[in-house]
Amino acid sequence: MISGQIWKKEIHQFLHSLQDIIDFICTSWSSWSSLILLSGCCCCYFAAVRSRIGPVLAGNMDENPQPPAVKKVRGGAKLNFLNKLKKGEKVSLEFCRGAPVGLNANKISAYCGKLALNGENYPFDIPDWSGMPHKEEKLEEAIEELKNIFHYSDEINFWVEEKIHEKWKASKRNMRLEHFDEKKTDAQNRASCPDKTQWANMLIYWRSPEFKKKSENGKASRKCLVVPHHGGIKSFVNHAIEIEETTQKKASRAAVYQKTYRVKEGKTPNPISEANRAQVEALERKNLEENGSDNDVSILELTSHDQLKGDKYSKIMGAEKPGRIRGVGSAIKVTKLIGESSSIVVQNNEENAVLRDEIKKLKEDQVHMQNDMERTS
């Protein structure tokens, strides 16, 4: 601002002085002589102005250097909720199928991302999560830290480990994409990361035949994914709860597919997913005509593989493969279904449903109370 004001003042003075010179020359000299004299005066005056203002501008720039533009990055705002917590206050959570659900589920997920970035607890130079040293001990410490911030339940311990693993793996991938260039030398790559001890070991691993083979296999597997879902970071269990709350219908695998594979308005849909969604709608109409209801099980009430046989999802996508369950997300595992008693699972699901209803009612009562207070105030 100072340099701009100086320039304006000097230019204003120059124009006034120039006008006086022009008037004098025009009245006293011939046209050719006037032109030569006017040109010389302008050059001399501009040189004088530059000699006076140049040092001021340079000094002004040195005293108030302009900071470089800061690149906006994602992620930092996800933990802003910590600043709003009062002393002793904890974030409330809802749980379903061994995973946090509801409005605050993203908060504990973001905090797991923060925990995963601790390179001392979870070193990034370990090639695979299964070889992480002192993993159980560090996970116990992470759970204790989470319990200090959230109303925690031990039923999500398995989910926490998976989430930290997922975030740790994603952080390694991001570091490789942002800081590692295969065309550069190791010396050039080593100068690019803050933790140089771990970074050096990571460079060695990324150059190894083992990693290159693993990377090629991963790329080949990714190319096989022709129909990506559009459910975002929200878990399939969360999507299922939303379906049942908003439509009063069972959140079957087909219903979850309809919700998570639908693109936003204005975007080009995937032709394969659109064809699958059309088949789901056709099967739903057929079931209603023949049976009067939907016989598919909700993924929130799933207790065994037998419940999935013949559902709309398997009719379109094919039979299940050993070791995994499709269309239910990462929270529902085969080992959980095999190892759990059906009666216990049903009881837990019923208890979770009751708790969700109670929380929903409490929120509605809170809104009514706030409205009453506003009307009376």
Automatic annotation (TrEMBL):
Keywords: Coiled coil. Residues 345-372 form a coiled coil. Pfam families: Transposase_24 (PF03004). The keyword Coiled coil applies. The keyword Coiled coil applies. This is Uncharacterized protein. It comes from Papaver somniferum. The lineage of its organism: Eukaryota, Viridiplantae, Streptophyta, Embryophyta, Tracheophyta.
